[in-house]
Predict the 3D structure of the following.
Amino acid sequence: MYILGLEGTAHTIGSSVVTDTGDVLSNISKTYQGKEGIHPREAANHHSSNILGIIKESIDVAGIEKDDIDVVSFSQGPGLGPCLRTTATAARSLSLSLDVPLVGVNHCIAHLEIGRLMTGAENPILLYVSGGNTQVIAFRKGRYRVFGETLDIGLGNMLDKFGREKGMTFPAGPVIEEKAKEGKKLIDLPYSVKGMDVEFSGIMTAALNEDATIEDLCFSLQETTFAMLTEVTERALAHIRKDEVLLGGGVVQNKRLQSMIKTMTEERGAEYYVPEAQYCVDNAAMIAWTGYIMYDAGISISVEESNIKQKFRTDEVEVSWR
Ligand code: AMP
Ligand code: MG
């Protein structure tokens, strides 16, 4: 069986073909590069001008014909309205023209499911840290529940905003990681953990107001925010008694964040998993694969029900496939 999945919640538009046995036959994407961060309309225009080519390429690279596709899935939310609408429109027309079922996928859940497929983690806590999202997610009582999350912005967005103020190229995350390696002094920044939740904008403002070298600022930003994420992940691990931690989202490519989480996980005697980069960032393979396991559990939607959900919550979805 072949499943074609479309991702398009934010800056990345992607198309992937996977099989029902979990082989990723193609995983094609293009990312909109905004100079001033992400402008939703411009990103959607970028997606609509690229989506057709990307779909065709994903079918070609998979080595199949379009009529071989059995299911179409798409990222239904959460995300930016104009981007979601563009992607959903393409998914609907594909499903109608091929006369195959349509599955709407929650983007955050897809990060967790592709991580399980790629790493062999069975029942992990996912620390999902991307541009727009920062969440600690785990399966409990039939749903993926959010055990902690950002109360303001995603960590990636914070790093990108900080970088923009400091004249760095976009995305700033990797630039900050490089500069942080040269940092020597830990500047005191407001460590903001509230229960299981975190906040980042106060830290950014404080860092921008500090008179320090850029290397020390980047180092201190990373140490402070990554320690916060490590703390809430550790607390979730203890509280819900899981023994696996999985990373997902673009920010988790950061080696310093990986090493902090790995150390904490090993000290607790738990397993640590991180998928390869192409499955950490926004990608369509995760939408195709999650679309398949949902379809296999009997889930699909009609075109009439396929409206996008900008604020699609992780725990809204009844996880009948587990
Ligand atoms: P995503 O939204 O999951 O596609 O991830 C994009 C975000 O990841 C952007 O905000 C980037 O700045 C951030 N990012 C990418 N690489 C790194 C890195 N090495 N360290 C920190 N952040 C990163
Ligand atoms: Mg994402």
Notes: The mean pLDDT is 97.
